[in-house]
Design brief:
379 residues; alpha/beta; pyruvate-formate lyase- activating enzyme; 3 domains; four-stranded parallel sheet; 13 helices; 18 strands; 37% helix; binds iron/sulfur cluster
């Protein structure tokens, strides 16, 4: 989401030479710490520029950020893509694509109330981009030669619930694939497995242009913790979903967001969190050590010692690394369609990262057969 929005901001503000914008994140305490660090660094690099901060931390940590001497002002997160908020003319500068992959934020905000999460405070309720607007965005990116479109959202699978007729995400994906037969690749960022509608399931199971890559906002592998988090799925729901999809699409790569050390997490609950990694075959893991966010119900629950949270996060990361290494090893010797990026690497449909031979043009999809694994990278 932030990548996609930062790209839009860059285009909107490209002519503002003396402006530095920090588009912040508040999802964890660590993200806020890094935001403060980015602000200090930016101020050092550009002592005379006007430095404005927007993003979720500018909502959730408003007073603290405004009090930083480096900061000249805050822009409300909901207004950041509105030219009027920045006092600039409402025109776009010509696009200068910096990504061969285009991230399109089709949904923003969230109507859920997971007990650990500050995002609804930072981004407000769920809003969806109407189909026509999504089609226009995709067309704009395809005109620039983009080979892969990634649909993103804070709660992507709730797309459509606020639109007339309440269409589901599967309908949007089908509409995009039908409208743009020349679009080689469509990818979903993170999805809430329990919200996958039947049409989306069918597309994930068999549509070749929808990448075989399912990233679940899983958060935990233990049912009691999932309930305390106020998630809407149970462990068995995630297992059943992945088993059903893998039965239909064997090359599906599974990713997951997992929180380590949620309040009250017992040793047994942590063991469930660890074991679901192997059971699902999680090869793309985003592990977050739990950090209490002010104003959330989880912040009032009995907390684990910070050292225990850290150790458990390390154990989860190690478990993902084991899955990932075994999975990458199975891809050696297999031809992969790799979308080349600017740094000499690219991603296969299953999102494995591959080092490409020198001279490969960014934006091209090349067939490459990796012969070995070098430091976790197929080459
Ligand atoms: S679904 Fe839960 S974790 Fe995700 S943004 Fe909404 S409240 Fe936060």
């Amino acid at each position: 989401m932030n990548l996609s929005e930062s790209e839009e901001l860059r285009a909107l503000l490209a002519r503002e030479q003396d402006l530095v914008v920090v588009n912040s994140c508040a999802v964890t305490a660590e993200a806020v710490r890094q935001t403060r660090q980015a602000i200090r660094r930016a101020r050092k690099a550009r002592p005379d520029a006007r430095l404005l901060v927007t993003g979720c931390a500018a909502e959730v940590e408003r007073a603290a950020l405004a009090a930083m001497p480096e900061v000249d002002g805050l822009i409300a997160n909901h207004a950041k893509l509105d030219p009027r908020a920045w006092n600039v003319a409402p025109q776009r500068t010509p696009d200068t694509a910096t990504h061969t992959r285009a991230f399109i934020a089709v949904q923003n905000g969230c109507d859920h109330a997971c007990t650990f999460c500050v995002i609804p405070q930072g981004r407000g309720g769920s809003r969806s981009l109407p189909v026509a607007a999504v089609l226009r965005e995709v067309e704009r990116h395809l005109d620039r030669g983009t080979s892969e479109v990634v649909l993103t959202g804070v709660d992507l699978t709730s797309w459509g619930q606020d639109l007339p007729g309440e269409p589901r995400l599967g309908a949007l994906v089908a509409a995009l694939l039908a409208a743009f037969p020349a679009l080689p690749r469509l990818r979903l960022s993170s999805v809430d497995g329990i919200e996958i509608d039947p049409a989306l399931f069918a597309l994930l199971a068999s549509e070749e242009r929808l990448m075989p890559h399912l990233h679940l906002s899983l958060q935990h592998g233990n049912d009691l913790i999932l309930k305390r988090m106020k998630r809407r799925h149970l462990r068995r729901d995630a297992l059943a979903l992945v088993a059903a999809l893998k039965a239909r699409r064997a090359d599906l790569a599974v990713g997951a967001d997992l929180i380590a050390g949620f309040p009250t997490e017992s040793a047994a609950a942590h063991a469930d969190n660890l074991s679901i990694i192997a059971e699902l075959g999680v090869v793309h893991g985003h592990v977050f050590p739990y950090s209490a966010r002010a104003g959330t119900p989880a912040a009032r629950m009995p907390q684990l010692a910070p050292a225990a949270v850290k150790t458990r996060a390390a154990e989860l990361r190690a478990a993902v690394a084991v899955q990932r290494a075994a999975w990458l090893a199975t891809l050696v010797g297999k031809p992969l369609a790799v979308l080349a990026e600017r740094d000499g690497t690219g991603h296969a449909p299953n999102f494995a990262r591959v080092a490409l031979p020198p001279g490969t043009r960014p934006g091209e999809i090349v067939i490459h057969t990796p012969t070995r694994l070098v430091e976790g990278l197929l080459a």
